[in-house]
Amino acid sequence: MKYAVLFPGQGSQSVGMLGALAAVYPVVTQTFREASAALGWDLSRLVREGPAEELNRTERTQPALLAAGIAAWRAWQSHQPEAPVAMAGHSLGEYAALVAAGSLPFADALKLVELRGQLMQHAVPQGSGGMVAVVGMEDAAIEQLCASYTGGVLEPVNYNAPGQVVVAGQSGALKWLEDNAKAAGARMTVRLPVSVPSHCSLMKGAALELAGRLTQVPFQNPVIPVLHNLDAEAHPQPHSLRGALREQLYKPVRWTQTIRALAERGATLFLECGPGRVLAGLNKRILDRNTLTCALEDPAALEQALNRIKE
Known about the structure:
This protein is α/β, with parallel strands linked by helices. It has 2 domains: 3-123 and 201-310, Malonyl-Coenzyme A Acyl Carrier Protein, domain 2; 129-191, Alpha-Beta Plaits (2-Layer Sandwich). 48% of the residues lie in helices and 14% in strands. The chain has 14 helices and 9 strands. The protein has helices at residues 19-24, 26-39, 43-49, 52-55, 58-77, 93-100, 106-123, 139-147, 171-180, 204-214, 238-248, 255-264, 278-286, 299-310; strands at residues 3-7, 86-89, 129-135, 154-161, 164-170, 188-191, 226-227, 269-272, 292-295. The strands form 2 sheets. Strands 7-2-1-8-9 form a 5-stranded parallel sheet, with helices on both faces. Strands 4-5-3-6 form a 4-stranded antiparallel sheet. Helix 2 packs across helix 7 and helix 5 packs antiparallel against helix 7 (106-123). The termini are close together.
């Protein structure tokens, strides 16, 4: 059976994440300790004990989730399965995918995403921007609604699944969206608990700063194809990888397109490497019933995936 590997982004974190997996696979704890040594602060303890407020700080969340994704991947790899047809990561998860694919050293990736979080948080004043999920509208209708607003930045940024798109922008623009979305056809809107308007034009300054650091990192050609958020395409050359990661910061995450592209490569099993089941939930809305997504946050799910691979 052909399978693809997915890595989640921000929002999947929780204190104690991957605890059940760590109880069976020592490599999980070892990975968190390795991350702590690379970063120079105790990520392992933060993940294990919290507090949640600290874990949810963007510059802490990003390296913690990267480490969690790689920990789950290493637990899976300990069984020496056949290689996946391709990988992808949602937003921040793209960095974990590149580490797993052998393109980006783990320690370098941790420091990159820590910086990425800092740059994103400082790109806009605290409380002046955010994100709203719009449920029940077609992509084109949301794009048209956002384009009709002329009072500031309001942009569709996460095409997560059919009928679920996240919009980012300035606070006043998001309030306008909440007030007008239902009249335009939305079933509901949900304000996300974030202070950073990710993947919109407000992040261009942060992307320029990140680009300078990206040139200093020794990227290699991935040994497993990684499909990028930018265009659902593989960018196997280091210069192209750097460009995709730079643009990812201020351009939309085309997740629906990415998952369908993985399915077109023959994947009928998807593995969510990391905490939570967010991507598994989205896959149910994107793919047909002949596909299965296993969230590798606990040993039972990992065992189920291994059994499916052997069928």
